[in-house]
C-alpha cells in the first residue's frame, strides 16, 4: 500500500495541495498542514499525484 508523506520542514502551508484534494490535506487555523489520510487509494491516487506535482516546495512524496 502506497503512503503519502509530507516533509513538514519543506512545507510552507500555502494550501496548494488542499486546493487539489481537501479530503487528504487540510490546513488548520494555525496554518498547520494535516494529512487526514495517508493511504493512496484508487479513488484519490490521481489527485494525490497531481498534488505531488503541483506542490511548490516539493514537500509531498508517495512512498511505495
Ligand atoms: S502544497 Fe506543499 S507547501 Fe503547500 S501546503 Fe501542501 S505540502 Fe505544504
Automatic annotation (TrEMBL):
Keywords: 3Fe-4S, Electron transport, Iron, Iron-sulfur, Metal-binding, Transport
PANTHER family: FERREDOXIN
The protein's required cofactors: [3Fe-4S] cluster
Protein's name in the database: Ferredoxin
GO molecular function: 3 iron, 4 sulfur cluster binding; metal ion binding
A Pfam entry, by short name: Fer4_15
Domain of life: Bacteria
InterPro entries cross-referenced by the UniProt entry: Fe-S_cluster_ET
